Amino acid sequence: MTSILVVCTGNICRSPIAEGLLRNAMAARFGADAPTVSSAGMWGVEGSSATPEAVAAAAERGTDIGAHVARRVSAMPPIDDDLVIGMAREHRDALAETGGKVRDRVFTLKELVRLLESLPPVGDGAGPDSLPGRVAEAAGARHDGFAGNPRDEDVADPLGLPMQSYRAIAWELDEWVERLVDGLFGPVAVRAASEG
């Protein structure tokens, strides 16, 4: 089964929200066959909960992260996920420095979406098993020099900011996650009301 890892700094704000949104989007698209989605932090405190503000902001977007328990990347087995998504360049770069094949599977969320949107669209019937191939295509586009928008790759960290900032980040993540899923697997055809 394919898997996706979402990484931020402490695994208590951005990555838990993104994990929940992405898990819901994958489940809506693929049901029981959806890729597994998890999250971790580069330097967080193992076992921490998501912040109350993150939980509330995610809930406002229809995602329950109340049971989230933070993990630290360094306390995990070696990363073998099919896709690793950093919330900021610092996360992507730190993970890429670990070497091995992970370098071609780690992106920032915004970088990956822009890479995928620069590629020819995925054909009908793309399923979870197409994820590794699509990630490889995005890595190829990056190696070929596609720069995207290097001044806008990070999702801001709302830690310590007011609730409105968490809401803004959750909204931003929701929008980028929707584009990510479409970029990986193609847009879902909207059926006419008369077909209902």
Describe the structure using short key phrases.
alpha/beta; single chain; four-stranded parallel sheet; about 200 residues; 6 helices; about 40% helix; Rossmann fold
Describe the model:
The chain is built from 6 helices and 4 strands; from the N terminus they run E-H-E-H-E-H-E-H-H-H. By secondary structure, it is of the alpha/beta class. The chain has a single domain, classed as Rossmann fold, CATH 3.40.50. Strand 1 (3-8), helix 1 and strand 2 (36-41) form a beta-alpha-beta unit. Helix 1 runs parallel beside helix 6 (163-185), helix 4 (109-118) crosses helix 5 (131-143) and helix 4 runs parallel beside helix 6 (163-185). The protein is globular. It starts with a strand and ends in an 11-residue tail after the last helix. The model is unreliable at 190-196 (pLDDT under 50).
